[in-house]
Specification:
Elements: E1 18-29, E2 32-44, E3 49-53, H1 60-67, E4 75-80, H2 85-90, E5 94-97, H3 109-119, H4 126-135, H5 151-163, E6 169-173, H6 181-197, E7 201-205, H7 209-215, E8 218-222, E9 229-234, H8 249-263
Parallel strand pairs: 3-7, 3-8, 5-6, 6-7
Antiparallel strand pairs: 1-2, 1-4, 8-9
Helix pairs in contact: 3-4, 3-5, 4-5, 7-8
Bound molecules: adenosine-5'-triphosphate (ATP) and magnesium ion.
Length: about 280
Amino acid sequence: MTSTANAPSATSRSTPGVEIRGVAKSFRSGRRDLVAIDGLDLTIAPGEFVALLGPSGCGKSTVLRMLAGLDEPTSGLVTVDGESPGDLVASRRLGIAFQEHALMPWAGVAANIALPFRIAGRRVDAERVAELVELVGLTGFEKARPSQLSGGMRQRVSIARALALHPELLLLDEPFGALDAVTRRRMNVELARVWSEEPATTVLVTHDVDEAVLLADRVVVLSGRPGRVVHVEDVAWRRPRAAGLTREPRFHEVVDRLTALLDSPHAEQDPTPSGATP
Ligand SMILES: Nc1ncnc2c1ncn2[C@@H]1O[C@H](COP(=O)(O)OP(=O)(O)OP(=O)(O)O)[C@@H](O)[C@H]1O
Ligand SMILES: [Mg+2]
């Protein structure tokens, strides 16, 4: 395992730190307990960008749900800014893009992006909404409803909505999964740019190793279920990072190392329906 967290760049915003200590999470599955996560430890510094990589079903979305205060660990501790995660949600400092994009089906693109303002009881900042529509390349589609958009367009709405209130904690669950390779890389670079301007403590779940290495300060590799940390890779390259970085040998070295780890047996999913205890 490589060393500890990068010191994040100075920021005037009070981005929160995250502490995940000795966390286990089980789900009741029929008459058994399915152990999704076990012995998970991870500290994320304020303003740090962490990417989570790991096999399907190892608990990545579950980790994000716990950080968003939508779920609780079965044992162990999850804190954001030293507090229970729910407090951050209550103070509207959280931005989240779910794996399933969860848009309002009856509302247009602009109205979906504006939702966080309405939930917070704030006047909608039309300028901010327009800026985000442009950022995610949906100009001209402001009134289009989700059913009239492609999967990738819906994902882009979801990302824009997560950014709407300049969140201090940003949780992104495979936000670019439905995009074509070219759009995906463009969105990666845009996210890197936005993030450099407005650093938020960020946890990105992705299956794309290139994306993780391009965007994150640290890439955390989880084992197959039950998920725990098997490797932490420091990616200490200067920001803002341009797409050209992905053509450099040092980039490929790191990507190859992480890909090999994901291919190795300890990253494979427990084939029994659980790590389960009867
Ligand atoms: N609400 C739930 N009830 C029961 N089991 C659940 C629930 N949520 C998740 N699980 C189980 O916990 C495990 C981890 O699920 P999770 O969605 O966190 O995986 P993931 O790493 O995000 O996978 P993927 O990469 O496929 O999105 C899975 O085996 C899943 O079946
Ligand atoms: Mg998931």
